């Protein structure tokens, strides 16, 4: 892995283009053949690639290192011995998910903002991409600068968590409206098809993603800000463009000329293995998707088994952990952004809250989510999968290196009349379906406590992080402490119970028991 820390600068992005084009708004937003100095269709591609990271180092630093806290993957290297898995990451690594995203989004975003006079479909699209990317930042850190960030100045006042999520959902709402109306009015014109690695410029699909993301955020904040959550969830579901409801509509990122970063980290670098949590749960459920998710172990005597590696181990030799299963991902595999199964599970949870999010029951949406995920991976669901009333045994006893542990709080697949158990099964099955979206899994684990995960093996936290509950957030970057100190202090005051600014402090929507 190439280790580096970027400075927050828009220089790289601005070097891509020169000047602006603010005087020709109408032509700029309607004529896709017009050549402009600051062409949004060109600027947009690198922005899109931040919603899940294609770039290998960014993927490793965020989606893999931080993402391992969600129970999907484990880093098979100890590097400097200060790692996320052991709850003692360095200041430089801790700042990465914040600084990298600010740098990569805002340079191009400001160019599009100026060129469009903050209006039209290009600007709505840019706002949506910023919202998707900055949602990941907010879910990691909490309060953050959002509404007041301006060109040339990232060191501004923080929004509260409520304000951040409110603004993000407004961006999704605007995108859903503007993009879908443009799609209808132009008979499906795709202004930047060749520069869109997800939907090839199809604005109807992007509008569906905007609505689905809005529903995701609404569920995320539903315990902290229930009225705002309900309003946004119901509006997203009722939107004319619809949601991502079929696997043909799934948002999948094409890596293009770059190698899939998970495959690169696992195979070429040897830095990534499958997490014991996801393997042992799917083994417990006898889930047929295992062969689509994992490769067999290469440990002697275990070559016909899937063996995951527990996270949070300090001081191992890299060669000793090489036998654990790796993700069944090819170099050309696309990256998951959002799938139809998640939409069904979100609606199932919404129905538990008695929200108006569809005509089906919570049970029907729950079972639909499982069926959609099985279909997504081309697997045949066992006849008794949905009716199985036995709680799975989730145990880590087949690891040749030890670290045995058994999960006590599991839930059967079959729906019943216990509402809390039904929430647990919705979250557990959504967790399985959303593999390998580690940051999303970590957020949902902190929100609900489901599914129960193995505790950290070696807890090196300097701030009192509980081994079983795990890290609750990332501390604010040292660059904010140094360069934005007064606003940083304000941001700390916005944290739950006023802080402190460490990894043991829950976010507003985090489950505290």
Characterization of the model:
With 513 residues, the protein is mostly helical. Helices cover 43% and strands 3% of the residues. It has helices at 11-14, 25-30, 40-48, 56-64, 91-115, 120-141, 161-185, 203-220, 226-238, 261-268, 276-284, 290-293, 340-352, 362-376, 419-433, 438-448, 478-483, 485-493, and strands at 73-75, 251-253, 272-274, 335-338, 394-395, 406-407. Helix 6 (120-141) packs antiparallel against helix 7 (161-185) and helix 7 runs antiparallel to helix 8. The longest helix has 25 residues, at 91-115. The protein is globular and about 65 Å long. The two termini are 37 Å apart. The model is unreliable at 2-36 (pLDDT under 50).
Strand segment count = 6
Q: How does the major sheet shape up?
A: 2 strands, antiparallel
Outline the low-pLDDT stretches.
2-36
Mean of the pLDDT scores?
Answer: 92
- Form type: globular
Structural class: mainly alpha
Helix content: 40-55%
Order of helices and strands: HHHHEHHHHHEHEHHEHHEEHHHH
Q: Which strand order spans the largest sheet, edge to edge or round the barrel? A: 1-3
Structural features:
single chain; 513 residues; mainly alpha; two-stranded antiparallel ribbon; two-stranded antiparallel sheet; 18 helices; 6 strands; 43% helix; 3% strand; disordered N terminus
Nutshell version of this structure?
The chain has helices at residues 11-14, 25-30, 40-48, 56-64, 91-115, 120-141, 161-185, 203-220, 226-238, 261-268, 276-284, 290-293, 340-352, 362-376, 419-433, 438-448, 478-483, 485-493; strands spanning 73-75, 251-253, 272-274, 335-338, 394-395, 406-407. It is mainly alpha-helical and 513 residues long.
């Amino acid at each position: 892995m190439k280790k580096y820390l970027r400075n927050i600068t828009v220089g790289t992005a601005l070097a891509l283009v020169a000047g602006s084009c603010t005087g020709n708004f109408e032509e700029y937003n309607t004529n896709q053949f017009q050549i402009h100095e600051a062409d949004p269709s060109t600027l947009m591609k690198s922005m899109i690639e931040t919603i899940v990271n294609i770039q290998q180092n960014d993927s490793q630093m965020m989606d893999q290192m931080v993402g391992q806290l969600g129970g999907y993957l484990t880093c098979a290297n100890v590097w400097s011995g200060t790692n996320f898995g052991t709850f003692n990451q360095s200041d430089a690594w801790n700042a990465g998910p914040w600084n990298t995203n600010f740098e990569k989004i805002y340079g191009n975003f400001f160019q599009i903002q100026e060129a469009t006079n903050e209006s039209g479909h290009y600007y709505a699209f840019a706002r949506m991409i910023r919202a998707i990317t900055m949602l990941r930042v907010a879910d990691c850190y909490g309060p953050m600068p959002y509404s007041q960030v301006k060109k040339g100045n990232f060191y501004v006042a923080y929004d509260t968590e409520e304000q951040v999520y409110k603004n993000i959902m407004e961006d999704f709402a605007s995108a859903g409206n503007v993009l879908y109306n443009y799609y209808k009015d132009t008979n499906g014109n795709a202004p930047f098809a060749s520069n869109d690695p997800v939907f090839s410029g199809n604005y109807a699909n992007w509008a569906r993603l905007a609505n689905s993301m809005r529903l995701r955020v609404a569920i995320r904040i539903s315990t902290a800000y229930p009225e705002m959550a309900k309003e946004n969830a119901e509006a997203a579901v009722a939107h004319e463009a619809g949601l991502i409801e079929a696997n043909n509509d799934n948002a999948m990122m094409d890596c293009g000329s770059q190698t899939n970063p998970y495959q690169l980290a696992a195979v070429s670098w040897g830095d990534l293995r499958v997490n014991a949590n996801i393997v042992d749960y799917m083994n417990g459920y006898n889930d047929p998707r295992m062969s689509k998710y994992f490769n067999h172990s290469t440990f002697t005597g275990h070559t016909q088994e899937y063996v995951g590696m527990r996270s949070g181990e300090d001081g191992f030799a890299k060669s000793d952990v090489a036998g654990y299963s790796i993700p069944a991902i090819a170099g050309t595999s696309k990256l998951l952004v959002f799938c139809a199964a998640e939409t069904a599970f979100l609606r199932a949870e919404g129905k538990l809250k008695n929200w108006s999010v569809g005509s089906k029951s919570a049970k029907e949406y729950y079972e639909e989510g499982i069926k959609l995920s099985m279909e997504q991976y081309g697997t045949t669901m066992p006849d008794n999968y949905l009716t199985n009333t036995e709680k799975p045994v989730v145990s880590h006893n087949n690891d040749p290196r030890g670290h045995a542990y058994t999960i006590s709080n599991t839930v059967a697949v079959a729906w019943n009349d216990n509402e809390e158990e039904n929430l647990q099964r919705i979250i557990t099955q959504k967790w399985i379906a959303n593999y390998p979206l580690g940051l999303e899994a970590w957020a949902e684990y902190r929100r609900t406590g489901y599914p129960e995960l193995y505790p950290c093996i070696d807890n090196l936290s300097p701030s009192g992080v509980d081994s079983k509950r795990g890290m609750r957030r990332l501390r604010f970057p040292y660059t904010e402490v140094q360069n934005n100190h007064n606003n940083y202090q304000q941001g700390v005051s916005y944290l739950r119970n006023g802080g402190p600014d460490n990894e043991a402090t829950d976010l507003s929507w985090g489950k505290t028991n």
